[in-house]
Amino acid sequence: MKDFLTKNIWLKIASLVLATALWIFVILSGRTEITMDVPVVYTGLKQQLDMMDSLEKVNISIEGQRSLLKNIRRGEIRAVIDLSETKSGRSFFTLTKENFKLSKTLMLTNIDPETISVTIESELKKRIPVKPVIVGRPEKGFTIFDIKVVPENIVIEGPKSLIMKLYSVKTEPIDINGLNTDLQYKANLDLENSTIRKKINKVEVHITVKKQRQGDK
User: Which residues pair with 209 in a beta bridge?
Assistant: First the structure.
């Protein structure tokens, strides 16, 4: 038995190293890594609360078999953050593999950023007037007689600090250059901040023009 263990020991060591290298090669063969941006999805936010600011995407690196990685579709992988226990104020979340639904054959190797912050505020609803934005001038000899907006007011809702700063909402620019007859136009509402919500996206703007009489300015 002693002779078996000691005879040709260097040959046995070399064989073991070769076998180990071959095993590692087989395991790693065909594996690669990809980097991609994935959306962050927030769930469980309590009623009467709103997100003031939040990160929309994170960058991740995934390692796995090349054939499996090629079949990953955009939007299939998401970072999910549970806000059910979150209160008003700023909260920090450290992302781990538990926040991602990945196949067991895939390995998450990097998350950037790994820690993200979310600011939560109480929700506020408010009714504000709609202000039409008119650009250009009617045809020479015509003037604007009246402008009506339907509806005149809309209800917006969102984080309290944002809603309290808004006293009106503007429409998209409405070009009346060269106008010589009445105009009815469905105008989009211009709310740049996506965290502010509204129940309607368009209003009707009725513009009445009349021909100037001689002597009118």
Answer: 144
